[in-house]
Every structure is written in C-alpha cells, then in structure tokens.
Design goal:
The structure holds two protein chains of two kinds. Chain A is mostly helical. Chain A folds into two domains: 19-140, no CATH class; 158-317, no CATH class. Chain A has 17 helices and two strands. The longest helix of chain A has 25 residues, at 43-67. The radius of gyration of chain A is 21 Å and the shape is globular. Chain B is an alpha/beta fold. Helix content of chain B is 28%, strand content 20%. In chain B, the strands form four sheets. A six-stranded mixed sheet of chain B has the order 1-14-13-17-15-16. Classes of the chains: A mainly alpha, B alpha/beta. At the A-B interface, helix 1 and helix 17 of A face strand 15, strand 16, helix 10, helix 13 and helix 14 of B.
Chain lengths: 333, 443
C-alpha cells in the first residue's frame, strides 16, 4: 500500500461547464450579428471590433499585472467579451482613439476597481458606451450609411431618432413612418444604428443558440421584450397617431441586443428566476419610458444600468421558492 | 410526463457499468475487521473477547441506546483481538478482528433458498426482529431502521415509500436486487407495512431501469395496496424529501421529518434485509456492493460479508486500475473518498467506485460569475452561492435565516458550478456551526 489516493469531499464529479466555455459561448453567439455588421458597414466593423477587444484585453492584462499584481486571467474570455459588446454598441464610424478611451472606462473604471470578474455592479461594456455617448455626443450619434464603406461624410439618423425628431415637430406617426425602413428591413437589419444592434434576426439566432446551450435562461430576454411590447402597446392603443407600434419598438434600436446579450450579463443580473423577471420587466418599461419621453431617442443602455443598480436589492428581497415552505405558510393563513 | 420533484436537480452521466452483472457471492475473506459503530447513533457495546469462538450471525456487539444497532459476526472463527482499526470515515474506530475458520452458521438462521411468503408475526414481533437483526438504512445514511419505523408521539405513518431510485451514478446494487430478489422485496414491503400498520406502499424507481420497473410491476400486481411509480431520471430523485414530493406530492416542511407528512422511506437493500431478518432469522451481516469505475476491468455487484477489506472486492473486480487516483465509498455525488484500500466494508457501503487520476482532482477555482446555476439546480430552493459567502465570512445568523440547515448535501451546486467553487464544502462547514449554535440555544 504505497499508492496515495486523493481525498476530497463530495461531489466527486463535475458537469464540465466552465467560465471560459460560457464567455466564449456568448462570443460565438454574437458571430451572426458581427457577420451582418460587416455586410452593412464593411471593414469598419472589423476595425472597431478588433480595437475594442484588443484594448479591453490589454487594459485588463496591464491592470492585473502592474496595479493589482495578480496572475493575469485574461484567458477567461470576459475582457474579450466586454470588448465585443462595447464594439457592438457604437457606430461603425467611431474614431479608434475614442473606442480605446471607452475600453479604458469599461475595464479600468467599471470592472477592475470593484475586484474584476464577478464583482462589478454595472455592465462594463455599457458603462464604457454611456461614457462615450456623453463625452463624444457627435461621433456617437453619427451613423454611417450602410454600404458607404467608411466614407465618413455620409451619415444618417437611426429610425428611433427620426421618430423622436418627427414627434417633437408634431408630425403624426403615420407620416413619419413613410421615411422609415419597413418592418422587414428593420428585422433583417437594413437600417442605421450601432454596429451590432441593427439585425434583430441575427441577434435572435445568437440568443436562441445561448438558450439551447443553456448559457442563459429565457427569463430576462422574454421579460424585457414582453414588458417593452406591452408597455409601448398600451400607448399605441391609446393614440396610434402619436405613438409607434410595439413591433417597431422591439426591432429597432438596441432592444434585442440588450435583451439577449447585455441584460443577461450574469455578473450584473439577479440570481433567481423571480428576481430576473422583475429585473427584465424594469428594463423593458424604463427603455420605453426613455424612448417616449426622455432626452435620448434610445434608452436600453440607461435602462439596463439603472436596473443593474437594483440587483443587490432584488437578490436580498426576492428569494427563490424554498422547498418545504408551503406548510409554514398554510399554518400562518 | 413522468413524476419527479419540482425544484432544481441535475443530470450527471449515469455510467451504470455493472447494471447487467448478476450479483455474485464474494469468496470468504481470511480475516475480517468489524467496526462496532457502523450506524448513526451510539456505537454498539462489544460482547465478545479475544479467543471467543464465533458462528456466522452471532451477536458480537449489542445496541447501547435507543438510536443504536446490534452488530453480528459475518464469519465463523476466532476473535483475534478487540481493538481500534480503520473505518470508512478514515478515523480509528473500535471493532472486532476475527480470524475466519470454516463457514459455520448459527443454526437459528434459515439457510433454505425457498422463499417464505407467509407472514405469521404481529407488528411488535416484526419490529423486534428488525431491531435484533441490527438493520440500518443501507442506502448510506445508516439510520437504525427500527427507530424510523416507530413514529414519534402524535404522528402516524400513512404511506410506506420504497426507494428504488438509485439516482447516484455508477451504483447498481439496488437495481440488481429488484431484478433478482423482487419477490422477497414484496414480502419485505408487506412486513414493513404490517410493522407500521400502514395500508399503502409505493416503490419509486427511476426510469433508467425499465427492467426493474416491469419486474416490480409484475410482482406487485397481486397486491392492490402496493404501487410502482416510475420516476424521471434526475438527481437527487432518491433524496428522501425529493422522493416523497415526487411520489405523493407532499412537501416535508423545512426542519421536519418525513413522518410529519405521514411518510416513511426505506431503501431497497434495507427492505431485502428486513425480509431476511424476519422470515429467515438472518441478522444483517452481508450486503450487496457495486464495485465499479471506468477503468475497472470487470465492474460487478458482489454479495459480501461485512468486515471484508475493500481491497479484496477490488481484486475480485480485476484489481486496482493503473490510473486510479481516488476510491469512493458510495456514489460520485455523495460518497466519501477512502484513504486506502485496507478499510472494511460496513453496513453503509453501497459501492466502491474507482476514479481515474484525471477525474480525481477538481478544476481550478475561479471567481463567482453570479451565473445563478447553483440556485437553479438546488433541490431545496436554497441559494448556495450566498450560503457559501455567509459561511466564508462566518455570518452564522444570516446563514440560519437563509435555511442553511435545509441543505441535503446532494452536491448539485458544486457539480454544476462553472467556476469550480467549493460551494458544498463551505455549506457543510456552515451547517456544522449553525447546528451547534441552534443546539446551544435550546434550554
């Protein structure tokens, strides 16, 4: 008996799932939307995505190595994912240096100071994106015309911006819609917008992939989309001349990207299905509120960040259903 | 849609490698070491001394309290010494060493193979036989069976549930018992029903054992009050509270015993032991053990005498695989790792699982990414990530409020965690502390 055996407490088997698999799984799910962005915006999409990913990874590496002095963990894929999501949330024409500033904010302010992976309260990509939107409002709202391939003089407005502007000028929605792409174009992604948000279809394909692979559950995306549809639908039913229909709201802007890829960020979303549904519903309603009455035409980034702030409260007060709770309640009643 | 428990659960690879292997009788060992504390509760008191001649089935240690159990000799021969030795927990425990000579059985044991189906004893006599035979829960918990069968004051058992789920991967001993000794099991069930005076019994079997399900349905057919309930393959379907929920729909309240919803659960091997004890006068001194593992030459199910060292079982199954890095007492989800192979089989040993080196070590622990998989798989509706943090930070009151004591230690959280976090390790630590705190509060 010379051989030594491993002693460890149970369980002795593991599902084989890993943080890396989850992160790279999400990145894989973003590939269809990326391909569509290349079709629409050409090499600019590749430039923006590569720079954002590289900047996020490098910043994380430098911070871990020289400031925190810990073993670099960039291989876990989380910094790369933040980079992809940041790229997806900016216009393809955005100057590279601005993107690098955005990446520095994402990693250097929103993620690492809180303790790195798993500890940041706010979605890092969205913090970076909102920082850029506020700091560089012109460049962040100049949308290249699809197919113009980097000719930076040609810009256009997003459907949501056109709608907001039209409503502000008192035009009826039906008139405004004549200047907007058809629903089919919106669904496929033949419209102006951020690099990765334009094709609802490509994003839904990616979202379904994540659902099938069990990377995410249905609770957050469904509650975001359903609440946005119901909430915008109520106003549309009240006054169709003043408000756009719910389908339009669902497939324009970043709602689908937000519902499947930003709101579902594990680190910054609640820990049980009940809380996740409340979280998602809050995002959907806030998004529509901002779109209808806010200063910005689009509101999903703000909505997600606001609900991120609610997550600790939700985790604290909304508990999963415990086994064996029934009888205690019945004795109370 | 098959019945199942509702909250959580996982589905580890089943790996029932020995499912088609009939139970074989293992050759008699040359010596045995029989620990006297093989059950939950007080260890039994040794009643033999060095030099005593023993028969198979002779009492060697008698119960020493209400929650305790008799221990019988599994072999005939001479007591070599009464001394401490290694037991499955890894600690040194008091026990009896016996040199085996021949195989002479106590003549009161009925060794005839004929199945004895007539039930002649009354409830009290059946209970007495069960206690006398030293029967404990053979699923691994080893709680003395006679204690379980006597409900506390003011409570009444309404239904007997037989746990034929065997939801642990790899293990097949209960599966084989159902296939090979179904008739005896039905008699065992009737004995238990009579002992507790209940008129309804249900056998829960996971759907990955269709042959056992059809066999038990065929045999239970004549008894209208015994039903067979096929269950979805989902771990931990065989957890006591989960099984009760799946079969009866009743939910055992937090902190309460199954009897509070009128249910008593007994596993297959225990039911078989009850048959043998009551109908054949045979004390519990042997059991069926699955010896298995991916690299094991000949994964098998052996009927083995208590006290046989596990190295003999491993030899019989083709020897210790070259790449073996861990040996587990029981299944991979809840079993305990053995330190070496010179440890005796006890009443609670349902399987010996040899894991290859590369599956023996855990992966690198990463930060929690708050994916909430641990919450979604917890069959008790708990929040393992939170319980781990509270235990780590020693915030015991909050851990108690978050129901840490409800944890059944099934391991689904640690199994599932993509960051390889030691969730259950910390929860166990917390349970120990919170449990002690709660006890200290009682007057």
């Amino acid at each position: 008996m010379s051989k030594l055996f491993t002693i460890s407490p149970s369980p002795h088997v593991h599902s084989g799932d890993s943080v890396n698999k989850i992160m790279y799984g999400v990145i894989l799910a973003l590939v269809p939307a990326f391909i569509w962005s290349v079709v629409m915006f050409g090499l600019d999409s590749v430039r923006v995505t590569l720079i954002a990913v590289a900047a996020c990874v490098v910043f994380e590496l430098l911070i871990q190595k020289f400031i925190l002095k810990v073993k670099p963990q960039i291989a876990d894929g989380s910094a790369a994912l933040t980079g992809v999501l940041l790229a997806f949330n900016v216009p393809a024409s955005v100057p590279s240096w601005m993107l690098i500033v955005g990446a520095l904010v994402s990693i250097g302010i929103a993620k690492m100071p809180f303790g790195g992976l798993g500890n940041n309260p706010f979605n890092p990509a969205l913090v970076g994106r909102v920082f850029m939107l506020i700091s560089f409002p012109v460049q962040m709202t100049s949308w290249p015309v699809a197919g113009s391939f980097g000719v930076d003089a040609v810009t256009t407005a997003t459907p949501l911006a056109i709608l907001k502007e039209g409503v502000k000028n008192g035009q009826p929605v039906i008139e405004i819609f004549k200047n907007l792409p058809t629903n089919m174009d919106l669904l496929i992604g033949n419209m102006a917008g951020s690099l990765g948000e334009i094709s609802a279809l490509a994003l839904i394909i990616g979202g379904l992939f994540m659902l099938v692979r069990k990377i995410i559950t249905w609770h957050i995306p469904v509650s975001v989309m359903l609440s946005a549809a119901i909430f915008s639908g109520i106003f549309w039913l009240i006054d169709p001349a003043k408000f756009a229909d719910p389908i339009f709201h669902l497939i324009t802007g970043g709602l689908i990207l937000g519902a499947f890829f930003m709101a579902t960020d594990m680190v910054t979303s609640p820990m049980n299905p009940k809380a996740q549904i409340i979280f998602g519903a809050g995002i959907g309603i806030l998004t529509i509120l901002i779109r209808l009455w806010g200063a910005y035409p689009e509101g999903i980034s703000f909505a997600i960040l606001i609900m991120n702030a609610m997550v600790p409260l939700l985790n604290r007060y909304v508990k999963p259903k415990r086994f064996g709770e029934v009888n205690i309640q019945s004795t109370k009643g | 849609m098959l019945k199942s428990f509702k909250i959580g659960g996982v589905h580890p690879a089943e790996n029932k490698l020995s499912a088609s292997k009939a139970i074989e009788v293992l050759a008699l060992p040359k010596t045995v070491f029989i620990p006297v504390g093989q059950h939950i509760g007080a260890p039994a008191e040794v009643v033999v001394k060095k030099g005593d001649k023993l028969l198979v089935g002779q009492l060697i240690a008698k119960t020493s309290g209400f929650v305790s159990a008799n221990i019988h000799s599994s072999v005939s021969g001479t007591v070599k010494k009464v001394e401490t030795g290694p037991d499955t927990s890894g600690y040194q425990k008091m026990g009896v060493y016996i040199d085996v000579e021949d195989d002479l059985w106590d003549e009161q044991i009925d060794r005839n193979n004929e199945i004895k189906s007539a039930i002649t004893l009354d409830s009290a006599a059946i209970l007495a036989k069960i206690q006398e035979a030293g029967i404990v829960g053979l699923g691994g918990a080893t709680f003395p069976t006679h204690v379980k069968l006597i409900p506390p004051k003011g409570m009444k058992a309404e239904v007997l549930l037989i746990n034929g789920v065997e939801c642990e991967p790899y293990l097949t001993s209960d599966h084989r018992l159902m296939l090979e000794h179904g008739e005896e099991l039905i008699i065992g069930i009737r004995l238990l029903m009579k002992a507790m005076n209940v008129n309804r019994a249900a056998i829960g079997i996971e759907n990955n054992k269709p042959d056992a399900i059809s066999e038990m349905i065929k045999l239970a057919y004549r008894h209208t009050n015994i039903s067979v309930v096929p269950l979805r393959v989902k771990y931990p379907q065989g957890g006591e509270k989960q099984l009760i929920k799946a079969v009866t729909g009743r939910e055992v309240p937090s902190g309460a015993l199954p009897i509070s919803v009128g249910a008593v659960v007994t596993n297959i091997a225990t039911t078989f032991a009850v048959y043998e004890a009551v109908q054949k006068n045979k004390p519990l001194f042997e059991r069926v053990v699955t010896v298995t593992g991916k690299s094991v030459k000949n994964p098998s199910n052996y009927k083995v005498r208590i006290g046989t060292t596990i190295s003999e079982l491993i030899e019989a199954a083709g020897g210790l695989p070259e790449n073996c890095g861990k040996i587990i007492n029981g299944g991979p989800m809840m079993g305990k790792a053995f330190a070496n192979t010179e440890i005796p089989v006890t009443k609670g040993t349902s399987g010996i699982l040899m894991m290859p080196e590369k599956e023996s070590k855990r992966g690198e622990t990463m930060p929690c990414i708050r994916c909430s998989r641990c919450v979604s798989v917890c069959p008790m509706g708990l929040e393992p990530y939170l319980l781990m943090t509270l235990s780590e930070k020693q915030i015991w009151e909050s851990a108690e409020n978050e129901k840490i004591m409800d944890c059944i230690e099934c391991g689904s959280c640690s199994y599932t965690c993509p960051a390889n976090r030691p969730l259950l390790d910390y929860i166990r630590l917390g349970k120990g502390k919170v449990g002690a705190l709660m006890r200290s509060r009682k007057p």
